[in-house]
Amino acid sequence: MNRKLLLSISFICAIICASAQTQNIRTVLQPYIDRGDLPGIVTIIAQPDKILSIESFGYQHIAKNKKMASDALFWMASQSKTITGAAVMILVDEGKLSLDEPVTTWLPELRRLMVVRIIRDGWQVEERSDKPLTLRHLLSHTGGMQYLAGVQQQMGKIDALPSGMSVYVTAMTPLLYEPGERYNYSNQGIDIAATIVERISGIPFDEFLQKRFFVPLDMKSATFWPTEKQLEKLAVPYKMDENGNLTETSISFLQYPLSDQSKRFAEAGGGLFCTPDDWVKFFQMIANKGVYNGKRILSEASVVEMAKKQTGENIAQPYGLGCHVSDVGMGHSGAYGTDSYVYTKEGLVVMYFIQQQDLPKANEAIQAFHNVVYELYGVRR
User: Fold this and answer.
1) Residue of 324, 321, 284, 279 lying closest to 304 (CA atoms)
2) What homologous superfamily is domain 24-84+205-377 in, according to CATH?
3) What residues does CATH 3.40.710.10 cover in the chain?
4) In contact, 224 and 264? CB cutoff 8 Å
């Protein structure tokens, strides 16, 4: 059989396979749109060097009859934590940071951290923490920090403080536990890790991400502050009203307007916005052990370290460095429904994007999508 015929057969097989993927995913997810259970969804399945499947369903904005597209803008929420973990690991690669050095090496403001010893009947007793807090603790949510530091708790907004002020508020916010003692999911800890990146690099955290990730990975849409033009493509978040109908809502964790850089600050634990067709590039790099389009972004050792369980033998929650981990891979979800996962052995990236606030059928739909992925590729989280 000649080479041209073999190439033609391979091309036809690839088209048939891609068509089957599209049909299976669409068959499972389209009914949720048609019934009015969910607004709009984007799914991506990729390998390090190519997109295997990218599908869009439903609406980016229902009232405007605006169809969902792969370049719609999504709030990534806590998926931001994985990029923050990778930012720390870049500086570890360069020998400028150590995961197990006390953070007071770079942030002396945290030398007098307190820890809550007793909470009873509305009062608490605090004592000086006697265990060193490290970057490994911060990135794995084992630093004992609260979800948000003082002022942020009162405002209820994660983007309320610049990092320069956040570190002082953190210094005045007692730890819930000694570092390494327990797991407590904490944007505060991730934000402090980003503050260390700023101190060591000498540039703001958003500029560091732009220079070290967004430019080399060609993630043009990634930002903490979407412009008015970008917001025209925003996937509007939806919730269910009392009559069971989808209704527009806002992102309750953030301050508005979203484009305002004077009042909103780069929040490393959950502030990034991006389009799916750009966001996938970061995870393709992770799937390729730190390399994207032939350019090394992270060392292979750093990618492996991120994907390890960092929470210790006595803590059940399997969390790595800025990402959830398991025996088969690593990834993260976001508060309003986005989800990205890398199957490390297979080098397969599986992504799901939606903007929803506690819709009843949301969990069922994403599980149905992952069941299709299992049927197609034999991988399960």
Assistant:
1) 321
2) DD-peptidase/beta-lactamase superfamily (3.40.710.10)
3) 24-84+205-377
4) yes
Length of the chain: 381
193: number of Cβ within 10 Å:
27
Edge-to-edge strand list for the sheet holding 339-343? 66-67, 50-61, 40-47, 348-353, 339-343, 329-333, 324-325
pLDDT values of the chain reduced to their tens digit, one per residue, 381 residues: 554 444 343 433 443 444 455 568 999 999 999 999 999 999 999 999 999 999 999 999 999 999 999 999 999 999 999 999 999 999 999 999 999 999 999 999 999 999 987 666 666 778 889 899 999 999 999 999 999 987 777 778 999 988 888 899 999 999 999 999 999 999 999 999 999 999 999 999 999 999 999 999 999 999 999 999 999 999 999 999 999 999 999 999 999 999 999 999 999 999 999 999 999 999 999 999 999 999 999 999 999 999 999 999 999 999 999 999 999 999 999 999 999 999 999 999 999 999 999 999 999 999 999 999 999 999 998
Q: Which two tokens stand for residue 359?
A: 């819709």
Report which DSSP code applies to 344: T
> Where is 126: in which H helix or E strand?
strand 123-128
Nearest 10 degrees: Cα torsion 328, 334, 335, 337? -80
Q: Which single residue is written with the structure tokens 């997810």?
A: 29
Distance, in Å, from the CA atom of 289 to the CA atom of 300, rounded to the nearest integer, reads 5
Largest CA-CA distance found in the chain, in angstroms, rounded: 82
Pairwise CA distance, residues 242 & 1, whole Å: 65
Do 307 and 320 form a contact (C-beta atoms < 8 A)?
yes
Q: Are 81 and 322 contacting, i.e. CB atoms less than 8 angstroms apart?
A: yes
Whole-angstrom Cα distance, residue 151 to residue 283?
Answer: 33
Q: What is the CA radius of gyration of the chain?
A: 21
Burial of residue 50 (number of CB atoms within 10 Å: 0-12, 13-18, 19+): exposed
